[in-house]
Specification:
Blueprint: E1 4-11, E2 15-18, H1 19-29, H2 35-46, E3 52-55, H3 59-65, H4 68-94, E4 103-107, H5 117-125, E5 132-136, H6 143-157, E6 162-169, H7 182-190, E7 194-201, E8 210-218, E9 226-231, E10 234-239, H8 243-260, E11 271-274, H9 279-289, H10 297-306, H11 313-322, E12 331-338, E13 342-349
Parallel strand pairs: 4-5, 4-6, 11-12
Antiparallel strand pairs: 1-7, 2-3, 6-7, 8-13, 9-10, 12-13
């Protein structure tokens, strides 16, 4: 019995602007700041490697107008819409009915919502009343792969079952309007909003890339590196400047033992399906793998087209690979990083 990825579908929010359209809003937000600081901030936005981003709110509301309560209300409303849209798309791709899903996992870290969004999706799509639910709220950027790992373990233990993992994120809703720190600036230059759904199955009827193995890797004493602090104005980003350096230092321990236990080396991996955390992390990973003749072009392209959408982003990269005509038997390695600090890995065979 094997677990396969049956389909992936993304869904983008209604508002979108390219970097040239966003800069005037950044300049308005920076009104009253020192000119040298303004130039530095604009340069960060222009050099972030993100040409366009999407959002559940227009730029004026992100940078100038809304309160935490208003933004969270928008988050709750839009997550239901985006979740429904990407789940329906994925079901259509797989030719499944909503009642075919046995296990629903929703992941998000950029808003506060109780009941979690899966309850609303079950009602709207009239999914089964005995469906198993798992909302995941604190895994950050790693949660797209984390959700797949949880689904994989359920499906391994339950042959003939099907699961949906839905990643729904609005990092733009966490922007702090009165915070001119580098963390707030860099994160707002990198992040965008988006949603995606991946369907997995342990049914012999379903086809798709097979999951050979999965694993998590925890960095000791690194809880300070990434996360959110809940303040009166919302979720305030925590992002340590040493993240790329720490990733680089841990890479041998993250990659090589995981592949070796499956009888492979990094040279055997044909496709790198990596979460684009930001320009510096992309460059760090390229430096590590470039000498092996491997690339993360799809990772870089997703960052350029959409920004870092937290947990959903790696699923955008995965969708690009599922849309390709990849020869049977080739290997793919999925990788994402998130708060904890942790790395999540999945080994695929196409």
């Amino acid at each position: 019995m094997s677990v396969r990825i049956t389909s992936v579908a993304k869904q983008l929010p209604q508002y979108t602007r390219d970097i040239d359209e966003i800069i005037p809003y950044v300049e308005a937000w920076l009104e009253g700041q020192e000119e040298r600081f303004k130039r530095k901030v604009i340069k960060i936005f222009e050099g972030a490697g993100v040409d366009r981003r999407y959002s559940i709110m227009d730029a004026e509301d992100i940078f100038l107008n809304t309160t935490f309560e208003e933004r969270n209300d928008i988050y709750c409303r839009e997550m239901k819409i985006l979740g429904s849209q990407c789940l329906k798309k994925a079901l259509d791709k797989a030719n499944w009915k909503p009642t075919d899903v046995d296990y629903i996992i929703t992941v998000s870290c950029t808003g506060i919502m109780i009941p979690s969004v899966d309850a609303y999706l079950i009602n709207e799509l009239k999914m089964r009343q005995d469906i198993l639910r798992l909302p995941v709220t604190e895994m950050g950027c790693a949660a797209g792969i984390s959700g797949m790992i949880y689904a994989h373990n359920f499906l391994k233990a339950n042959p003939g079952k099907r699961a949906a993992v839905i990643a729904l994120e609005s990092p733009m809703a966490t922007f702090q309007q009165n915070d001119f720190s580098m963390v707030n600036i860099v994160s707002s230059a990198i992040f965008g909003d988006g949603a995606a759904c991946v369907l997995l199955s342990s049914s012999e009827e379903d086809k798709g890339p097979k999951i050979l193995d999965e694993a998590m890797y925890h960095f000791y004493d690194a809880t300070h590196m990434m996360g959110f602090k809940l303040v009166n104005t919302g979720l305030q980003m925590i992002l340590d400047v040493t993240v790329p350096e720490q990733i680089s230092e841990h890479f041998p321990g993250i990659i090589h033992p995981f592949l070796e236990r499956n009888g492979y080396s990094i040279e055997d991996v044909d496709h790198l399906i990596f979460h684009p955390g930001g320009k510096k992390i992309v460059q760090t990973v390229e430096d590590l793998f470039g000498s092996l003749g491997k690339n993360i072009d799809d990772t870089r392209e997703v960052l350029k087209l959409y920004g870092n959408m937290s947990s959903a982003t790696v699923l955008y990269v995965l969708e690009r690979f599922l849309d390709k005509d990849i020869p049977e038997g080739e290997l793919g390695l999925m990788l994402s990083f998130g708060p904890g600090f942790s790395a999540q890995r999945i080994l695929l065979q196409f």
